[in-house]
Every structure is written in structure tokens, then in C-alpha cells.
Design goal:
heterodimer; A: mainly alpha; 3 helical TM bundles of succinate and fumarate reductases; B: mainly alpha; 11 helices; SuccDH_FuR_B_TM-su (chain A); SQR/QFR_C/D (chain A); Succinate dehydrogenase subunit C (chain A); transmembrane helix (chain A); metal-binding (chain A)
Amino acid sequence: MSSMRVFQLGLRRAAAPAFRGNFAGRMVQRRLANSQSASQSSAEEILVKQRVNRPVSPHLTIYRPQITWYGSMFNRLTGIILSGGLYVFGFAYLAAPTLGWHLESQSLIATVAGWSAFTKASAKFAVAMPFFYHSLNGVRHLVWDMGRAMTNKAVMQTGWGVVGASVAASIYYGFFV
Amino acid sequence: MEVSSNLLGAWQKARDCTGGRLYRAPSDWSAPKDLGYNRDEASQTIDRRVLDDLPPPTPPNHLHSLSTLQFSFVAAMASVMRPSLLRQSQAAQQRVFSTITRQTTLRPSIAAALPKPTTASRVAAFHATQRKAILPALPQKIKGTLNEPTAVPDPAPAHGSYHWSFERVVSAGLIPLTIAPFAAGSLNPVMDSVLCALLVVHSHIGFEACIIDYFPRRRVPNLYNASMWALRIGTVTLGIALYSFETNDVGITELVSKLWSA
């Protein structure tokens, strides 16, 4: 394009901006995509596969540890530990005659009696801690179910209260009883 | 006039320097591989299409809305500041094609050797928080089509308020049965059996809640059903085991008490 032609073009546009001033005609946006037709079912499959690649919402690690949700988490964890222990004991007790194990109370007591004082205390503390936490926190839940102590402040206070009480009880029953 | 010819010259010069391959589609332009889409092949095609079809760059928009007098004034000024305008026009020329990114001048061999961005990194680039795959994403299948409303379960008190109350009664019933052995040292066999029964029910409800929360039926129906059945079988087995222990042995509270003082 000669510079003369460019000049003419420029003049023409400058003279009649209302008609030629709109750039939409020349500045067509191009979306450079390659497409390919897909059947309804295969499109669904592609969509399902693609959805798995979507970002997962932020997980627990991005939140500040707070007694409100940490307490709730430990309530479930301790519940699983206690109930899981009960289930495992039940299964083992039923399987014991077949497998030749001795899980009658006398053998269990005799086994524990053979442990060192430190082992006994540690084992007691390890059992007492989830037991007391889950029991006391369960009471807290029942109080909430009655619609009481539902403010943020009360939830935090009772949360720490349960932690303190279960630690104290576990130390007492672990090491002094 | 000067502005326009400078722009045109810059564009032509740039095109000649790069052997006609000035613009191309972004190399990380996202298209899932599942579509059978060949990125390199497609971008080659796009290169040619872009260069053939796109008009030569035009002066920025504001110059066109000037009157003739103003235009000549701008043009006169432009001739004075030609070297700096050349640089500006090059920048403007990049802005003109705002939907197309400029090709990084990599030789094809080097470009091929570089690792291609994965889907995860492309997705992550749009998010401020770090992507942490603690667990893999569960299947994202939708029953029916996207436009169907979520099925609302029939309101049944047995699955709602009665169930809720039952859970609370069981939990509350555990409180005296838990405190009594601490006070009395142990429980009589009947109360001990009641404690065992309540523990079984309470545990079953607790595990059931975990399964419902972590293995959603909508996402992983098979895992949900399998774990529910495993739980039912396990609970019945536990019931048999505790019945056997209660009838043949000393009972739970007595066992714990003796183990504690062993």
C-alpha cells in the first residue's frame, strides 16, 4: 500500500468518522479453536472426564486451626478410634478359638500384669484420652442439641474446657489409678 | 500519515524478519487431549490463516476520530518524534492483535524439547491458592442431564426427626451407664449388656455417618454400598461377639476395671 493511499484512507475516515469510524468491521475477533463434532453420549463422557480436572476446592490445610472445627474433627477421630477398637476386639474375640488366640479376660489381665509400669501407664493414657474426650464432647453435643451454649464464645470456651478436662482425667486415670 | 506508514513499515519488517511466522496461537492454548486434538498441527494451520486473513495494522482508534486539521497536526508532530513513535507503533501493533499472543522466538527443536504444560498446571495458573491433591477428585458423573433438578427425598419422619431423636436417646442413655462404673466400680450383668447394646448401636450410627460423609452415594455408589454392607455385617458380628463375651466371660466394664488395675 503506498503512503499516498494510506493518506487518502486516513483523510476519508477522518472526514466521515460516523460511517467508517467503527472498527468492528475490520477488527474481527478470531477464536482460534479446532472443533470436532461429537455424539451426545461421547460428549457426556468427555465432560465427565474433563470435570475431574477441575480445581478442587481448598482443603482443611488452608484454614487457621481453631478450637471450633478442631474439636469437631477430634470428636469424630476419637469416636472412630474407640468404636474401631471395639469392633476389632469383637472380631478377634470371635475368631480367637479358630486361630488359637487367648482373648479371655484371665489371659488378657495376665498379659497386662506382665507389662512394665511405664507401658501400663502409657497404654492407659492412650485409651483414656480418646475415651474422655469423646465422652465429654458428646455431652457438649447434647447440650447444643438442647439449643444451649450455641454462641461462638460459648463454643470456644466449652471446647477448651473439654480439652482441659479430658487431659486432666486422662493423666489422673492413666498415671494415678 | 507518518504514523500510518510507520505502523505499516514496522509490521512488514517484523513479518519479514520472522519469515512470515509472526503470530501464532498461544502454545499453551488449552484443549483437552481427549478430543484427539493435535495442538502443534493446528497451530501451524492457524499461523498461515492469521497472516493471510488479518488486515495490516491500522493506527490506534483515537487517530481516526480526529478532524483533518487535528490529524495533520498530529502527523506533523509525529514526523518530529519519529524514532520514539516507531517504538510506540511497534507496541501499538502488538495491542492491535489483542486476542493473539506473539510467538516466542524459539526454534522448533528447542520448543519441542521443552515440557508441555499439563492440564493441572494450566488450571492452577488461574487460581491464587495452591492446588493440593490430598485425595483424588471423585467421579463427576451426573445422573440424567445437567438441567434436571436434584431429586428431593420423600419427607419421612423415620429418616428425619425420629432418626435424630433416636440417636440422641442412645447417646444420652450412654451417659449414666458410663458414669455408673466409675462410681460403683463395675456394672451388674444386665446393665453391662444394655451398655454393650447401646455401644453397638452408637458405633453403627457413627460409622454410618462417616460412610455417608466420605463415600457419597451420588459419586461412588459402589463403594458406598459395599462399605454399608460391610458395616452391617460388622455390626452384626460385633453383636454376636459381645453376646458371647457377656454370657461366657466377665463383661465389658468388669474387664476394663480389672485390666486397669492389673
